[in-house]
Amino acid sequence: MTMTVQSDYSEKRPPLLRILQAFVDIRELMLIVLIAAIIIVMSNLNPYFFSFSNFRAVAVGMAPTAIIVIGMAILLASGGFDLSVGSVMALSSTVVAMLLLTGMPIPLAVILGLILGGVVGVVNGVLVTGLGINPLIATLGTMSIARGIALVLTEGFSVSSLPVSFAWIGKADIGGFPVIVLLTILLVIAFDLAVRHTRFFRQVYFIGANEKAAMLSGIHVTRVRIILYALTGVLAALAGVLLASRLMSGTPTAGNGIELQVLAAAVIGGASLRGGEGTILGAFLGVVFVALINNTMTMQAVSIYWQMIVIGGVLVSAVALDMLIRSKRG
Amino acid sequence: MNATSIRDGEAAPPLIQLDAVAKSFGSNLVLDGVDFELRPGEVHALCGENGAGKSTCLDLLYGLHQPSDGKILCNGKEQRIENPSHAQSLGISCVFQELSLAGALSVAENIYAGRAPARMGVVDWPELRRRAEALLAEFGLEIDVSMPVDSLPISSRQIVEIAKALSLNSRVLLLDEPTSALAPDEVDALFDVLRGLTRKGIGIVYVSHHMAEIFRISDRVTVLRDGRHISTLPATQTSQEQVVAEMIGGAHPGDVSGSRTVNGDKVVAVTGLSHPGEFEDISFSINAGEIVGMAGLMGARRSEIVRSIVGLVQGATGNVELHDQPVKFTSIRQAMRAGIGFVPEERKTEGLFLEQSLSDNLIAASLAEHTSMGLMRNGSIRAASRAAIDAFSVKASGLAEEVGALSGGNQQKIMLAKWLKRVPDLLIVEEPTKGVDVGAKFQIHTELQRRAAEGMAILVVSSDFPELVSLCSRILVVHEGRLMGDIPAEQASESVLLQMAAGTTLRSAASATPDSGATL
C-alpha cells in the first residue's frame, strides 16, 4: 500500500497505453466494439446471421440470463454472490405453473411466483449477513434446496397444459418486437440508471469496496445486503416465469447451470468478485457478447462442446487483461 | 482557549457522558468503571497507552459496542447507542484512525457516503459536488472532488475522512489520531476548523499520541490506564510530563540511549542504487552493530528504496553488496536466505496473520527451523515462542491467542520478534513503533539496541524523527528519492532532519558531513 501513496493521476503515459487503458477502464466501450466486430465479421461470413429473425432468436434466448445478470451484477458490486439463481428460476416456473393449473388468475400466480423468489433471496441474505455464512456456501445450499423443492413438487416432470392466455407474456410481440425482449431492455435501462444515480444503490459500491467502512459511515449494511439478495431472487423468479410462459410449461430442470453463465457474463462485463465495481450496462453487454459468440459458433456449425471451451477462454482472458492493466498501473 | 465556552457549558448538561462504564470482551475486562463527560464547546483529549481503553470508549460512543455495565447519557438522558447510524442520528460522528473510504468512488461521494443529497432517491450530483467542495475549502484543500479517492495522497485522504465526519453537522465529534498523516500546515488548518466548531458549541473528543498537539488544542485532558479512569484536568492545570507519567503509571522508561560507538565489519554497502521515476543514486553502508536511521517525509520513496534492496521491488539499478559480495535479489526468499530480515510498515496488511495464533505468527518466517521430516515440531515452536514473548514482555493470554486480539504495541512486538528470531545479519525495519504506546516503544528500542550490540546491522526507516535521533548512530535523510545527507546522530536534531527531509536546506545541513551521498 505504501507504494501507491503518491498520487498518480497526473502521471504522463504514452498515448497508446492511455487509449488502451481508457478502453479497458470503460469496459462497456470495449464490449460494444467487440460486439460490433462480431456482427461485421459474421455478416460477411454467413448471410443468415444479419437478419431480424436471427437477432430476434438470440434476444429471446438470452432474455432470462440478461434479467438475472442485473441482480448478479448488483450483488457482485456489493461484494455478494448468488449461486441459487438457476434453481430459483426453476422453482418459480414450476410453482407458477402449478398454481395456474389450480385455476388461479394469471397475475396473482405470477406475483406469488415473484414473491417466492424474493423469499429465497431473503433467506440467502439472512444466511449471509445474519449468520455470516460465506455467500458461496450459503447460496450453494439454497441452490440445492430450491432445485430439490422444484423436483419434489413435480416429481421431476414438467408441468404443462397451462392456460393459453399465459403464453402472452412469453410469446407476444409489440410492433414485431417480443414483449420478453422489450421487458428485458426496459429493466436493464431502469436498473442501470438506478445504480448510477439513486442513493440506495450508490450504497452498494461502498459496501462492496469496504464493508466495515460502510458500516462506520452509518450505512445499514445488513439491510442493504438482504434487499439485494431479495432483488436478485425476484429477478431470477421473473426469468423463470417468462421461461415458463415461453415454453408453456413449468420445468423443474430449467436454468440448470445458468448461474455460471450469468457470473461469467457479469465478470466479462466488468464486475469483480472483490466487489465495489461493475455496472448493469456492462454486465448486460457481457450477456450479449457471450450470446453472440454462441450464436456465431452455432451458425458456423461448431460443436456445442467447443462453445464451452471458447466461453471459458473468453472469461479468463477478460479477467487476465484486467489484471494485467491493473498491475501495469501499479 | 475557549475559557468562556467552558463556563457556558457547565450550565448545560454534558453532550455525552460515560457513567461508570465497564466493557468486557469474554473474560477480558477492557474498561472498568470509566467516567467521562464532554461539554458543549470543549475539546476533551483522551490519553492513554495502547490498550488503555481509549478506542473502546470511542467504540461505545459510536455504537460499535454496548457497555457491559454502567450507562451512556446523551444530553443528560440515558441512551443506548445501537449502531453507527444510530449514533449519527443522535448527532455523533467519528473519524477513525483506519481510513474508511471507498477508493474507487469519488471524493464527493465518499464525503457523503450513503447520504448524498437526493431528490426522490435520485442523487443530485451538482449539489453533491458543491457541498463537498465547500467542506474541503475549509481545510484549504482545492481538489477535483469528482476524482476517485485512490488518486489522492494519504494526507488528503485523511482530510476527506475528516470532512466526511463534519458533513454530518454533528454536535459531538470523535477524533481518533486525526493528524497521523497530516503535514504541519494541514494540522494547523484542522485545528482552525476544530476551533470554529467549538465556538458553535460542538464538543470534540480528541484521541492522540501527540502530546504537543493535545496541549495545543484541548481544554481538558482525561487519562486512562488499563481500562481505568486516572484523572481529568483542565489542560492548563496539567503538563505533558504529568500526563505521560499518569499514562504509564509507576514505570519511567526515560530516554533510550545505547552505545553509539560502532566498529564492526561492513555488512551492507549500497552504491548508486537508482530506479527511474522512483529514486536516484542512493549510496550508503551499514556496519555490524550499527543502527542506521532513514528519515523522510511522505513521498520520499524510503519504502521503495529498502524494498528494492530486499527484492520486493524489481527494476532498480546499482550495486548492493552484502559482506562484500555483490547481490541482487529477485525475491524476499533470496534476501532472507542471504541473511536479511525485513519488517514491513503495515502490520495488519503486510506483517501479521491476524486470525492466526501468536506462536504461528512468530514462526511464520522460520518454518524450516521448526520442521523435521516434513512435520512441525510443536515443542520447539512453543519454546521459541516463549523466548520471544519473554524478550519483549508481550502481554497475551497465551501462545494460542489470536494476534488480531492483541493491542497494537504487542502486535508490533510479535512482528519484530518473528524476524529477530531468524537472527539476520541485516535487519530492515519500517516504522518500528508506529501507533505504539510509550512502554512498548521503549521495549522495542531496547531490544533493537541489544541486538545491535550483539552485532546485528539494523536499518530503521521511520517518520518519527525524535525516535531516529535517540535510537540511531547515523541518519540517512531522503527527499523525493534522493539522499540529502548521511549525518551522525550527534549532529542530528528533529528540526535539522525535518528541514533536510523537506528539501529546504540542501547543502547547508548536509555540509555537516564532508560528502553527503557516498560515505564509507
Automatic annotation (TrEMBL), chain A:
State the source organism's domain of life: Bacteria
Q: Where are the transmembrane segments?
A: 29-49, 55-76, 108-133, 145-169, 175-195, 226-248, 280-298, 304-325
Q: Which UniProt keywords apply?
A: Cell membrane, Membrane, Transmembrane, Transmembrane helix
Question: A Gene Ontology molecular-function term?
Answer: transmembrane transporter activity
Q: What is its main location?
A: membrane
Q: How does it sit in the membrane?
A: Multi-pass membrane protein
What is any Pfam family matched here? BPD_transp_2
**Recorded GO CC terms:** plasma membrane
* Location in or out of the cell: Cell membrane
Name of the protein: ABC transporter permease
Instruction: Specify the species.
Output: Roseobacter insulae
Its ancestry begins with: Bacteria, Pseudomonadati, Pseudomonadota, Alphaproteobacteria, Rhodobacterales
From TrEMBL, chain B:
Keyword match Translocase: yes
Instruction: Identify one Pfam family in the record.
Output: ABC_tran
Q: Domain ABC transporter: where? A: 16-251, 262-505
Protein topology in the membrane: Peripheral membrane protein
Q: Where in the cell is it found?
A: Cell membrane
Give GO terms: molecular function aspect only. Answer: ATP binding; ATP hydrolysis activity
Report one GO cellular component: plasma membrane
Listed A to Z, the keywords are: ATP-binding, Cell membrane, Membrane, Nucleotide-binding, Repeat, Sugar transport, Translocase, Transport
Query: Where would one find the signal peptide in this protein?
Result: none
Tell me where it mainly resides: membrane
Q: What is this protein called?
A: Sugar ABC transporter ATP-binding protein
Task: Provide the species name.
Answer: Roseobacter insulae
